Amino acid sequence: MTDARTPEICDYEGSSYRTDFWEGQGRDYEDRVERIALRRLLPPTGERLLELGAGFGRLSRMFTGYKQVVLLDYSRSQLEYARSRYGDAGFLYVAANLYEMPFAPGVFDGATMVRVLHHMQDPPAALGSVRRVMQPGGVFVLEFANKQNLKAIARWILRRQAWNPFEREPIEFVELNYNFHPGYVLDTLREVGFEPGRMLTVSHYRIGLLKRTIPTGVLAWMDSLAQLTGNWWQLTPSVFVRNVASGEGEAAPEGAFWMCPQCGSYEMVEHDDVLTCEDCGTRWARRNGVWDFKEPLGASS
Ligand SMILES: C[S@@+](CC[C@H](N)C(=O)[O-])C[C@H]1O[C@@H](n2cnc3c(N)ncnc32)[C@H](O)[C@@H]1O
Ligand SMILES: [Zn+2]
Q: Which pTM value belongs to this model?
């Protein structure tokens, strides 16, 4: 962990994450058990859901019970791919930094963040940023990579790994890739204004031999049963936790959705694929259907 003022970003721009990591890469089991956990924890319907670090939209189709699904990711190319799959009806694509989101406070009643916290150099800032845009009582389902997993414990006991899986500090095992202790994640969630509740442990059987020899459906079913012990102990590589946004938090004026990431104004006017901040004049463009908050168009005169 560093105490740099602006956390670094693990940049997926132009990456082949979809084809290198998912499609045809033997991870159907992981994909299925993650969907089971999400279905169990997230209310199936609602007004507006924010998918944080949505990537190429692997999971986005699951959220269509919400009137609007907002896919947020730092990578424009991942979002462009997602848009080519889902189109614009009911979906909005926003390229922005999770730490500095261009949304007014309290505009989402649902949020999910899967396989993203593990890239966060500053989890309190990232989770605080999520809390800011959640409506009080809204539900946020967070997945995190668990450092206290059985494999890490065994490796530590056998002295094949230097770091202690029981210590609460996040471990950066590869640059900008972190694993977290469940206690650390739960404390951080509470500190920023969430009330964590039901937990599901996920991917109990993430072992090559099992995945190759047991049919995926059977393995996923076994995992779905084991997930239910999630509040008692957490020894899997992945953990899902359902949180409710507690307290009141900031409130935006009625009807506000965008917030200028430059000056914090809610006076954002949309015209011809350009969003202009009426207060500081900064303009933001929508290109190929993706709102781009990574680089402003520049101040208008
Ligand atoms: C491992 S992928 C997960 C994608 C998707 N959630 C899934 O499970 O298939 C991590 C995603 O987080 C995004 N990401 C990382 N840091 C980010 C940040 N600071 N702001 C927004 N997105 C970020 C990356 O661009 C990438 O698409
Ligand atoms: Zn502004």
A: 0.96
Q: What is the CA(263)–ligand 2 centre distance, in A?
A: 4
Ligand number nearest CA of 259 is 2
| C-alpha 301 chain-centroid distance | 37
Torsion of CA 125, 127, 133, 139, to 10 degrees: -170
The topology (CATH level 3) of 17-256 is: Rossmann fold (3.40.50)
Domain assignments of the chain as residue spans, ordered by start: 17-256, 258-301
pLDDT, tens only, 7-47: 999 999 999 999 999 999 999 999 999 999 999 999 999 99
The residues lining ligand 1, judged by C-beta closer than 6 Å to any ligand atom, are 9-10, 12, 17, 53-55, 58-59, 73-75, 78, 97-99, 114-116, 119
Question: Rounded to an integer, what distance in angstroms lies between the CA atom of residue 95 and that of residue 211?
Answer: 35
Question: Strand pairing partners for 139?
Answer: 110, 244
| Nearest listed ligand to the Cα of residue 117 | 1
pLDDT classification of 4: cutoffs 50, 70, 90: low
Residue pLDDT, tens place only, 178-187? 999 999 999 9
Per CATH, the number for 258-301 is 2.20.25
